[in-house]
Amino acid sequence: MKRxxxxxxxxxxxxxxxxxxxxxxxxxxxxxxxxxxxxxxNRKYVERRLTHRLQxxxxxxxxxDLLRSNERRIRHLLETGAIQPKKQGTLRVGAVLTRxxxxxxxxxxxxxxxxxxxxxxxxxxxxxxxxxxxxxRWSGPAFFGLRNPSIKENS
Length: 155
Known about the structure:
By secondary structure, the chain is an alpha+beta fold. Helix content is 45%, strand content 14%.
């Protein structure tokens, strides 16, 4: 697949132009982006897939660092069979941590100021949430898979 040289903010006009393009132009763009002719002669389908591919390309350029980080973690998982622990302190506001515990799915949303929301209440610690879920003392980051529970931190 060829990469677009247009910056992400230039993708919107390209997407808008799809509707006014001739069929042979759409097929040429498909071949450029997918490496082959479209296997279907449905214009609406081709326009939707081209739109999706252009959006993918824009996101790939906009979030290149995140994609590289994910690729490294996937390679590590495939090579070792173990999930590479995330660095602590990398939780972004709005992220949702989930854990299936005894058949129930528990979700925690990361708020600003190092706070967390669980079941409509705010907490200052993941460990307190883990204790509420399990009834026993747990490391919150270990419980939610943010670090290996067997690794002790030096403080």
